[in-house]
Each structure stands twice: as structure tokens, then as C-alpha cells.
Amino acid sequence: EVQLVESGGGSVQPGGSLRLSCAASGFSFTDYWMHWVRQAPGKGLVWVSRISPDGSSTTYADSVKGRFTISRDNAKNTLYLQMHSLRAEDTAVYYCAKISLVWGQGALVTVSS
Amino acid sequence: QAVVTQEPSLTVSPGGTVTLTCGSSTGAVTSGHYPYWFQQKPGQAPTTLMYDTSNKQSWTPARFSGSLLGGKAALTLSGAQPEDEADYYCLLSYSGAYVAFGGGTKLTVL
Question: What is the pLDDT of residues B63-90, one digit of tens each?
Fold first, then answer.
């Protein structure tokens, strides 16, 4: 079964850090670009970041550039999103996705004092 | 970064036809934007309906079709069913530099 499973969500204070993980199975993870997408409560989907199959190329939305880092471990079929200097406006469900095929169930990140 | 535009809401009658569109602030949408369409129902993760303008996933019902129409990407639903009521998002790719979602269209089947 093609599947993505996120973990690592939770509550953090403003200025804090959090790392999300996304375990992939059922498809050739190492062949594809992977993305992180977020959705604030009651709002639409917002693209966050993407990474090339070999991890050498990364791109970020302006809103997270310099604070978030996307990475992958192809030996573990796992995608990561390291988030620093978190703000209240980063509160959202974070989805990992191979956008032409499969999405994870989402991980909730809440930034609040 | 570019702004991607969609109709905020549309209503279609059961069995009817509706077209959702996806425009770009940078100009006409072309196949080079590799348009995607996603469906999201309340409380669920999105699912991919269409990629590269008109390619369907295996689970995409035949009543959905994708195209380019009047400088925009379009998703046409022919023969709407109650279960098609959902939010629909498009995504465009900009020369490999970044991708951007539209604001979403809330489709009501009524």
C-alpha cells in the first residue's frame, strides 16, 4: 500500500523548534520530489517546501525561508521538516506529499504561549 | 511569488456539469505549469485527482476531466454526485523555482 505517515507534531512556544518526520512506503521514495504543505485551521492549502530525489535541491515558500529546513534520508525512506523560530502563524496541520500520488494524514503543529 | 486564483465557491445540481478554473497572476496558465487538482473533504487529508493538466489517478472518477481553457487550468465535473461536494484546490509549478496553491473552491452539490 502506498502510504505516508507523519510524526513529530505537537505544541511549542513562540520561538521554539520542532522536527516533523514522514515515513514513506509502497512506492519508490528515492525517485521522487517530495513536498511539505500546511493548512491553518479553517484555511486553504499552502505549499511550504520541496526537495529533489537525491536531496541536493530544495525550495521554500518565502514565509518559511531561513527558518525551516527540508531534508530526506533515502536509506530510511523518510522525509523531514526542521522548523525553527516558530511563530503563531505557523500553527497548522502539516502534510507531507508526493503531490501527484499520495498525501500523509497530517501532523498538527500548534505555536502558542 | 505568483498568486493563483480560483472561484471561492460554486454550486452544481446533482447530475449537472460545472467547471472550476485556476488562473495565475503571471499570465496564461500553460502545460508548463503542470497543473494539479486536489479534492479535500472535511476532516480529511487532500487526495490527488489530476496531474499534469489532464492525467487522472486510478481512483479519479471518470466524470472528472482536466484541461486548459481560456488561459486557465480547468477541472470539469460532468454528472455531479452528492459525494463530489468538497473543497478543490489547484496547484501550479513556476519554472521549477516554486509551486503555489490556489485559494480553493468550495463546491456544493445542491
Answer: 999 999 999 999 999 999 999 999 999 9
Q: Is B9 on the interface with A (CB under 8 A)?
A: no
pLDDT, tens digit, 9 for 90 and up, residues B26-60: 999 999 999 999 999 999 999 999 999 999 999 99
A42 touching chain B per CB within 8 A: no
CB–CB contact B101 A61 (8 Å): no
Cα angle A56, A57, A58 (rounded to 5 degrees) comes to 125
Tell me the C-alpha to C-alpha distance, in Å, between residue B98 and each of A10, A61, B2.
27, 7, 9
- Comparing CB atoms, the residue among A47, A62, A106 nearest residue B99 is A47
Q: How far is CA A41 from the centre of its chain?
A: 16
| Residue contact B46–A103, C-beta within 8 A | yes
Q: Do A50 and B91 touch (CB under 8 A)?
A: no
Contact call for A95 and B46, based on CB within 8 A: yes
Q: Nine-digit cell at B93?
A: 509549478
Please choose, from the candidates A9, A21, A3, A20, the residue with its C-alpha nearest in 3D space to the C-alpha of residue A98.
Answer: A3
The per-residue pLDDT for range A78-91, each reduced to its tens digit, is 999 999 999 999 99
Q: Are A97 and A104 in contact (CB under 8 A)?
A: yes
Residue partners of A82: CB distance under 8 A and separation at least 6: A17, A19, A68, A69, A70, A71
